[in-house]
Amino acid sequence: MFALTANDFVLTLAGAVLVLGIISFVIGLFTLAFKVSNGEFSEISAQSAKLMSKGLTDDVSDLMGNASSLLASITQMTKTKAGVGMFLIIVAFVFFIVSYYLVSQLL
What we know:
This protein is mainly alpha-helical. It has one domain. The radius of gyration is 23 Å and the shape is rod-shaped.
């Protein structure tokens, strides 16, 4: 077995929490930077706008209602992805604070 003292265990725990914080921060930034402004969302939005204009010219109110619902869903999905990214960044900062607290208790 390993002979770990209490200080070694706390330092190992602080290192693991720091690594989790870094991973969470990177994933949060990636989610905010790349997932929110996805090209698929813009393509679906453009097609929905064409669909709505077609519904206006052909006087098809059901088609317009469904396209409007689709655009609302896309907007909500974008907000949700941004919220997930911000949550991960906040969790990362909590991990950083916990790691700092663990190390500062040893010194």
